[in-house]
Specification:
heterodimer, A: Rossmann fold, five-stranded parallel beta sheet, 6 helices, B: 594 residues, f41 fragment of flagellin, N-terminal domain, Beta-Lactamase, rod-shaped
């Protein structure tokens, strides 16, 4: 593990998606530590376990068994230790309702899972290189959903 | 109670009758008095005549005595003396009678006294005449004297009798005059009084017969309206009842019996029967409501079930109101409605509503499936294909590469289909917030959305001023995108596409077959292009979901775009039409209500 590497955590129950994600991170030339959890329960256990380092960015799928992404989001934002973690919603759905809900509940960005591996790489690159401090202070309803230029 | 006709003439009738009766009583008392007086006066006349007769008898008795004496003196025959002897008795008898008759008149008594003295003197003179005419004691001078004296006495007696008769006559006259005065009312006055009474009675009779006529008319109306009520009760499935609280008497209308499952008047309703037919479930509530009637003066609608004798359950709705009638007794008026049909219909509707809600939920979950679960595998297919690197493709056979390309385009098409379908269903299910917005702004947004294609095709879009309308902004924007996008897609390859958009305000009545006439004014927005156009026979079908006029290899599309347009316009209670000349261009016209 590299010390100054970005800590990335992906919570997604889909094995293929985790694979795409892992491959994409391997191909982009940024030092990252990528960890995975398979469902909401596991995610919360991981986060609450103080032995684990908090991730710099949490990629959160909404549709997960045991505990949905939205439930996790609410719980994280309620927990003092966790509430400052950057949360990128990473979902297949692009329904207005989901975008609206997660925006209100304090997620930092909304990513619609792309259907192209190169796009995925671009997205990940964009997300990990963004100045989160700057982005969060200027966050609004329109730039919440990530659109690649 | 307003429906009772006001026969206020009964009071005036009473007054007329009392006056007439008093007049008649007055007249009859006068008649009685008159009769009495007549009787009195005839008695008085009789009295006078009796006195007259007695006086004449007195006179004739004396005359008889005189004649008899005279006969005796001439003939000296004792037979002539008989009247003389009896005359004394006759005179006495008459005298006693006269005394009785004149007992009430002191003047006549006095006269009678004087007459008596004169008669006594006359008889003394008779005695003397007899004495001096007797041959034994004959004295011519004394006889002459006494005869002459008798003559004078006789004159005096006659005079006295005449005087008495006169007095009696005067008295009679006076009394008759008094009686006449006492009957002060003239016959003319009596007759006119009688006529007044008669006319009063006639007036009363006229009033009575008039009231009677009115009563007959009202009675007829009452009969008609009660018949109407009975009829409307049976048609409208309701009934009425009244409960006289003071007399504790309950009346049911005929239909009330029928609603309860009985023949009219099959039983005598009482307080107990009100509850008797109520379903056990509702008995307490109905009983409570009956108890509350008197306090609250009216019953709010109560809903309950009843059980008919044949065990059929019916649903009732009842209301009532406490009124006080003209006699001051409290009457509760009630109406019952048999709402069984409505109730069952309602239940059915509720069930259907539930089903609808359920199917709506299913639709929503289908949306979710389409937006998420269906996209998931598709996205993976696409991602996996994207991961087949060029290096991988190098080692593939030609047909293998071809298959990969086909899979890629099919997956792409699937993605477009799903996205369009979602868009279509969202135009219906998402929140419809109407905001007043300038349509030019939305058109600008649409143009910038299509900027890439517009530039690529070197299209020219001209528009005049669009109105400011209350719309669902993102939907109208979508409408503009779809319509302009459509024109761009089906442009003619040989010329640069030109789309002109114009707007004008029109009256609904000018387009009776197209737009809803309940809205007066519409904004007619026309999109005219110089594209390839279509056969006008398809101008209706192009708005139907999945209807396409071209093969998907020539013009890729899902056949959803115009269906979405139609749906959006319908969401705004507007209308969309299309017309075209093949090879020249198409015109899409959108009507949006003002």
């Amino acid at each position: 593990m590299q010390k100054n590497a970005l800590h990335i955590l992906l919570a997604d129950d889909d094995e293929d998606d985790r694979l795409f994600f892992k491959d994409a991170f391997e191909e982009i030339k940024i030092q990252t530590n990528v960890n995975f959890v398979h469902d909401g329960m596991q995610l919360m256990d991981h986060l609450h376990n103080e032995d684990n380092k908090l991730p710099d960015i949490l990629f959160l799928d909404l549709n997960m068994p045991k505990k949905t992404g939205k439930e996790c989001l609410i719980e994280i934002k309620k927990t003092d230790r966790l509430k400052d973690v950057i949360i990128a919603i990473y979902s297949t759905s692009s329904s207005e309702e989901d975008i609206e809900d997660t925006f209100i509940q304090g997620a930092n960005i909304y990513i619609k899972k792309p259907s192209d591996f190169n796009t995925l790489k671009k997205i990940i690159n964009e997300v990990v290189t963004v100045n989160w401090h700057y982005h969060t202070s200027g966050l609004n309803r329109d730039n919440f959903l990530l659109r690649l230029k | 109670m307003k429906w009772i006709p006001n026969f206020n003439s009964s009071n005036s009738l009473r007054v007329i009758f009392v006056i007439a009766v008093f007049i008649l009583l007055f007249l009859s008392s006068i008649a009685y008095k008159h009769n009495q007086d007549l009787n009195e006066s005839s008695k008085l006349v009789m009295h006078t005549y009796e006195i007259n007769i007695q006086l004449e008898r007195l006179m004739s008795a004396i005359k008889d005595a005189e004649t008899g004496q005279r006969g005796y003196i001439i003939t000296r025959n004792a037979r002539f003396l008989t009247p003389y002897i009896y005359s004394r008795d006759k005179v006495n008898t008459s005298f006693i009678t006269l005394k009785k008759l004149t007992a009430d008149n002191p003047q006549q008594q006095e006269n009678l006294q004087k007459l008596f003295k004169l008669i006594t003197l006359r008889f003394v003179s008779f005695e003397n005449c007899l004495k001096y005419s007797d041959p034994k004691t004959y004295d011519k001078r004394k006889l002459d004297n006494h005869m002459f004296g008798g003559r004078i006495l006789m004159e005096n007696i006659r005079f006295k009798v005449d005087e008495m008769n006169d007095i009696e006559k005067t008295y009679l006259k006076k009394r008759l005059k008094i009686y006449d005065a006492e009957i002060s009312l003239s016959p003319l006055f009596s007759i006119s009084l009688f006529l007044v009474a008669l006319s009063f009675i006639l007036l009363a009779y006229r009033q009575i017969s008039r009231d009677f006529e009115r009563l007959k008319v009202f009675n007829k109306r009452l009969l008609i309206s009660s018949g109407l009520i009975a009829e409307s009760e049976s048609i409208g499935n309701f009934s009425t009842w009244q409960w006289d609280l003071d007399a504790d008497k309950i009346d049911y209308s005929d239909n009330q019996f029928r609603l309860l499952g009985f023949e009219p008047n099959a039983f005598v309703p009482s307080k107990e029967t009100l509850l008797k037919f109520v379903h056990p479930d509702d008995k307490d509530a109905v009983a409570k409501s009956i108890d509350g009637i008197i306090e609250n003066k009216q019953v709010p609608f109560i809903y309950y079930k009843i059980i008919r004798p044949d065990f059929e359950v019916r649903y009732f709705k009842t209301t009532g109101k406490l009124v006080t009638d003209q006699q001051g007794s409290k009457i509760l008026l009630g109406i019952n409605f048999d709402i069984t049909d409505e109730h069952l219909l309602n239940i059915e509707l509720q069930e259907r509503n539930k089903e609808l809600e359920k199917s709506n939920k299913e639709l929503a979950s289908f949306n979710h499936v389409a937006s998420h679960d269906l996209q998931e595998p598709l996205r993976k297919i696409q991602t996996f294909i994207s991961r087949v690197s060029d290096a991988d493709k190098e080692v593939m056979s030609e047909s293998g590469k071809n298959y990969i390309t086909k899979i890629e385009s099919s997956a792409k098409r699937m993605r477009v289909l799903i996205d369009d379908l979602l868009l279509f269903s969202r135009t219906n299910t998402t929140k419809k917030e109407f905001i007043k917005i300038n349509l030019n702004e939305l058109l600008d947004n649409a143009e910038s959305e299509l900027a890439e294609v517009i530039e690529e095709k070197r299209a020219v879009i001209k528009s005049n001023k669009l109105p400011k309308l209350s719309v669902i902004p993102y939907q109208i924007e979508q409408l503009f995108i779809n319509l302009i996008g459509n024109s761009l897609k089906y442009s003619r390859p040989d010329i640069e596409p030109e789309i002109s958009i114009s707007s004008e305000k029109v009256n609904a009545c000018d387009y009776p077959e197209i737009v809803d006439q309940s809205v007066k004014k519409f904004h007619k927005i026309t999109f005219t292009d110089n594209g390839m156009g279509f056969d006008p026979q398809f101008k209706e079908t192009i708005f139907i979901l999945f209807q396409r006029l071209h093969s998907k290899t020539d013009y890729p599309g899902t056949g959803i775009g115009l269906a979405i347009c139609k749906k959006i316009v319908e969401n705004h209670k507007g209308h969309i039409t299309a017309d075209s000349t093949l090879g020249k261009g198409s015109v899409f016209t959108v009507f949006l209500p003002d």
